[in-house]
Please model this.
Amino acid sequence: MKIHIFLPVALCLLLASCIKDELANTECDIISAWVEGDEYRSMFYQPETDMRFDRLSSTETHIIFTVRSTLSLPHMPVYFDITPGATIEPASGSVQDFSQPVTYTVTSEDGQWQRKYLVEFREPDLPKLHYDFENVEEKTEQLKFLFFNIDATFYQWYETTSQNGQETRQDIWATGNPGFGMGNSGAQIMDYPTLTDADGFDGKCVKMVTRDAGPFGRPLKKPIAAGNLYLGKFDVGEVTTNPLASTKMGIRAPFDEEPIKVTGYYKYRPGAEYINEEGTVQPGVVDQGHIYSVIYRNQDENGNAVMLDGSNVLSSKYIVKKAEMRQLPPTDTWTPFEMFFEGEPLDQQILDNRGYNFTLVFTSSKDGARFLGSIGSTLYVDKVAITLKNEE
Model:
């Protein structure tokens, strides 16, 4: 199963050639950020990957370097690659005091646009093993689609933990809502595929609805947009080139021992008519919701970073453990679910060095990535928990 993101390809191909110069003059993005120097390597769990961020999304404005400890953090330079012609202040490579987050401002070449970035060095977040989906906000993003600036407002989830006496926000959840917004510029917040709902098992819950993908969908054989929520990031920058790669699946594993199972509560009701890529109704076919979890190695054999996406999250050779709800029977009442991890035991040394990534995925249409499903299929999820070995 792969997560579906709507892609207005035709308009992109039609207009891209005539606006290239304008885009180059108005962009103000950090593309890459990194720390260099052997003297800093011991600060990081995995220097080969943790000292550098490449291909940052244009909507990602909080850059967090994870270090072993912040108690004796030295003054140091951070380097940036920014969009052509833009400038950055403070300057790339200038020495800064990162005992507190530092704000960098990128100004476009034409001087008309600015974007502020917060760069922070932080110890690993404390384990978060229970998710109740109470922390949700309305988020407005200005999405760039060719020379259009689209203001999209949708729901975004986050977690919080308390560390060193301070509450820390964890932006670990992502949805395909931004991709839907790019193809449906007039959509209201309740029109999006992934929503919050006040009538949860206890408090709020997540509501995922398979939507009509909009005016570009049917001509491009992409008629539906499945609701989804997953641990990871959504990269708007790849929507127009490789939509499945825009779903960056996984965060550093939020546990220090073997996980056994994932539990929670759900409600599910499939839509009335199952349609294929052509928008043709498939008689007798019933849509299915999907819930699963994957643990995988986040470095390859050569020490390069591994981040799974919608194209390989269930098939990659780097997967170590997987849990999946193979059947999700329709129900209009809150129903418990339980799925057990299967696969190889985790290597404790790799786990201690944050060498595994972990994702949880929920979607209202199991085959949404192939643009197959039923408009109106609805999945609710609440009170999700990870059980570790010592808790069994």
User: Anything to note?
Assistant: Confidence is low (pLDDT under 50) at residues 1-23. The radius of gyration is 21 Å.
